[in-house]
Amino acid sequence: MRREVRAILLVLLGTALLRISLFSDSYLRYVRAALRPYLIATGAVLVLLGVASAIATVQALRADPDQAHAAADDHGGDHGHGHHGGPGIAWLLTLPVLAIVLIAPPALGSYTAQRSESTTVKPAGAQPTFPPLPAGDPLTMTLGSFDVRAVWDTAAPLRGRRVRLTGFVTAGKGGGWYLTRLTISCCAADALASKVEIRGAAANPAPPAGSWVEVIGTWLPDGKEAEPDTIPLLTAAQVTRIPEPKDPYE
């Protein structure tokens, strides 16, 4: 790859990282908030490397134009050995950058969750214990926490408690719908889905798939033995459309 091409690619990639992490919250579509400092640092380093490479190339051209061109073409030039188009292919590396800057792919949503089962996982240990639930009516919970409590907490502290859950709508079986939220450990590539089946008069008609809603309701025990893929039930008293949150993941 020619040195000037490499310099431009480094600057473009670094600028794209800084744009989504330093000057906006777009990075939350791809990674956890805790990784923001690392994205900013990486973007700054790439820009500095690109600028340094460009300066070195200009200085080399001024010092010895013929030798500089020969060195720049060392890995990307023709030389009659079938390396035609090497620098041209290198420009394809700009496509991911342009996708981030111009298209800004959205966060994972209903399309991903629709094709995954509920990921309610039993906490470590044969007989897990849970801390008491805080006061509040309704009790605001993450959807993942509600799933774990509803499925695995044998003390059933959710029985009779009204809870407030937030997520997006995915279609369920038999015409029903799920309130869904994706959880990531590091980045969108490891996203796992948590789901709650919404029932009751307030749940009809179902909101549009992919729309974000806040649901206030009461846990509905189904009397079935808990399994890793159990999807809890919630009788909704109120369903409210809301804007997509800044951070779409739990």
From TrEMBL:
Pfam families: DUF1980_C (PF21537). InterPro entries: DUF1980 (IPR015402), DUF1980_C (IPR048447). The keyword Membrane applies. Keywords: Membrane, Transmembrane, Transmembrane helix. Residues 159-249 form the DUF1980 domain. The lineage of its organism: Bacteria, Bacillati, Actinomycetota, Actinomycetes, Kitasatosporales. The keyword Ion transport does not apply. The chain crosses the membrane at residues 39-58, 89-108. This is TIGR03943 family protein.
